[in-house]
Amino acid sequence: MEEHNNHLDESFRDHISTVDADGKRVWVYPKKPKGFFTTARNYVSYVFLLLFIAIPFIRIKGDPLILLNVIERKFILFGIIFWPQDFHLFLLAMIAFIVFIVLFTVVYGRVFCGWACPQTIFMEMVFRKIEYWIEGDYRSQMALDKAPLSVNKFFKKLAKHTIFLSFSFFISNLFLTYIIGTDEWWKVVSDNPVNHIGGLVSIVVFTFVFYGVFARFREQVCTTVCPYGRLQGVMLDKNSINVAYDYVRGEIRGFLKRGEDREAEGKGDCIDCHQCVVVCPTGIDIRNGVQMECINCTMCMDECDSIMLKINKPKGLIRYVSEEGIRNRTGFIWTKKVISYTIILVVLVVALVVLLATRPDVETTILRTPGMLYQSQGNDKYSNLYNFKIINKTRDTIPIRFEITSHAGEIKLVGQIPVIVPNALSEGALFIVLDQKDITKIKTPITIGVFEGNEMIDEVSTSFVGPVK
Ligand code: SF4
Ligand code: SF4
Fold first, then answer.
1. pLDDT per residue as tens digits for the range 348-357
2. How far apart are CA 420 and CA 394, in angstroms?
3. How many domains would you assign to the chain?
4. Which residue's CA is the closest to the ligand 1 atom numbered 2?
5. Which is the closest atom of ligand 2 to the Cα of 279?
6. What is the spatial distance between Cα 433 and Cα 448, in angstroms, rounded to a whole number?
């Protein structure tokens, strides 16, 4: 009777499958997967790998498609440059992205983890494949690890770790191109090393971080570190579609015996062969139900399908299905949670599009120079000194001029007529001269227009300090 109730035993939730009772790591040797979903994921991951590598090199009018320069707080998403002044837009874009992920997870479960997460793609599609290529499938890997050191073992391990380290070095460089851009990265790796100590140290540090992640830490990133994985408990509900074991069809599980009538014996389709466990890269048993450790990699689906084919049963004992779908044989249901997340997502996306569309091309600040009072210019005229800063968010050089739009006054630039360069901050100083009759307060509010030709492209408010008579 004990075997009948396996799927109701919840004790597996008390511990991580990859840590034993003494707290020691249980190394996972997943069986090499094959099947329809593995092939499909292979193709998808090739596309993603190409994209990961190409994105920093793809340019839109000279700027990378994506740049996440946290050092200079300059971010580019799909060609749109976000300056520190656009932080609210960047934040909104990030919130919309997170809500999208949450909504997607509520409906489709962790499909992102299995199909698009860079950790899974690099781990399962690059590093794991190198391991299978050098050390063979899981049984050979286990045997090699147990075997005493030999010339064969030494060279296999040396080859594997040398290749791992080389790929980690490559990923580290790629990672840097997302942070500082390809031009700066090229300077770091090709210029005199003395000028780029920080960049070179980062490459070395990240090489060892990635090596540690892919050679040793592996599935622990997904099962213990990744915040997205940890949030599954609050995001998933009974209608979320996940890689799941159909316990209605599979139970009561039991070994396959020659000539038996499983239906008559009350047995389900699961023959308890454990192949879905053997193939799992996070070392869990999907038959225990949806678990936070499951990255929806589909390997158990393929493995179980191949078993079902062998025993002449329909495929899909483990498949993409919701808990509700298994229990009641229903399809996808629009729950209140899904509807409210969808509304929030639509509102956020609309707000983001409106804010981006109405974002000014030029953003100006003009402030009186600190510590300066007014200067008398004679003939009842007074001047104030100001500092201006202009961010040009376009990709064009813009020649500009200033004009007082609130009063009849004069602007005298300190230095040359300003030309604001593309995607950069331009700074300068100017004097504003007003007639005594226009000075109505100790701090008279004034407005200054920034013009490109005859078109006012920005207008700012500031104040003018002068004697009131
Ligand atoms: S692979 Fe399929 S049949 Fe085998 S134990 Fe897993 S669920 Fe049962
Ligand atoms: S349970 Fe299946 S889908 Fe989940 S991680 Fe393991 S093999 Fe992948």
1. 888 888 887 7
2. 10
3. 2
4. 304
5. 7
6. 12
